[in-house]
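thought: fold this chain, then report.
action: predict
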Amino acid sequence: MNTALFPVATPLPNDDGTVTAVVTNPAQRLGDVRVLTLAFPPRQPTERLAGRYLLARCGAQSADERAEQWSIYLRRPLYPIARPRPAHTATPMDIWQVCLPAIDDPGYRWLAALPVGSAINVVGPLGNGFFVPSTVRRMLLLADLATAPRLLPLVDDILDRNGQVSLVVAGTLSAEPLRAILPLAVEIHQVRSAVDWAATVADGIRWADQICAALPSTHYSALADQISHLRYRLEPGFALMLAEADLACGFGACLACVVPLANGSLTRACVHGPVFDLLELAGKR
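observation:
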C-alpha cells in the first residue's frame, strides 16, 4: 500500500483520546452489510476484539468541527470483522476492516460514501467482547446474515488453536458473499425457516464446546431452553450473546444502550457488554 493513497489525512492519535482513522478502501457491499477499510495508527494487539466496537463520528472531518459543531450526527458503532493487520507502508499503520449495517441511516450513509483518503474521528475499541477459554476447540456461531460479520474475529482465534467452527446463519438472501471471505475450514449452514433453525441449532448445541451468538433478543429464552433440554442445564460461559443495543456514547452516560437482565434489573451494554452470558439475559433453565 502506498501512502499516496491518503491525500487528505494520515492516521494519528489525538490529544482528546480519539484517533483519526483514514479510509483506504471505500465501503464494499458484503451481503446485508457494507465493509469499510480504515488505516489506524499502530497500536498494541487488541485482546478479545470480537464483540467489541468502535464509535465513529459522522460528519466531522476536523478538530474544529468536533469541538464546535454539536449538531453533527451522533457517533455510530462499527464492529471489526477481522484482526487488524500492519500495512507495508513508509508510515507505520494498522489496517482495520469494520462493518456498516445496510440500513437507511444518515450517519452510516455518510460513512459509506467517504472516498479514499477521508478522515474519520474514532474512539475505541470499547466494551467487553467474547471470552473464549483456551479449552474451547469446537465453536458454534449463531447469527443472521446482517450480524454474522460481527462474529468473524472469533474464527481465526479458534482455527489458530486447531479448532473447528460451525456457523449457522438465518436469512433468505444468499450467504455466498459470507462464504467468500471465510476460510474453507469453516462449516456454514444457512437456514430459512424456524423449524430448520431449531433442528440445525440442536445439532450444533450437542457438538459445541461454546456458543457465541449475535441474535435478536426474541431468541434468548428459546435458545436457553433448547440448551437446557439438550445438555441438561445451561452452564455459565457456555453461551455468550452480543446483545442488541443502541451504542451512542460508549461511557454509559446517555443510557440509550440499556438492556434488561433476567433478574429484573437493567444494565448498560456499552460498558458492561455488549457481550453477555446468556444466563444473564435469559436466566437459569
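thought: worth noting. The first helix runs from residue 63 to 68.
final: C-alpha cells above.
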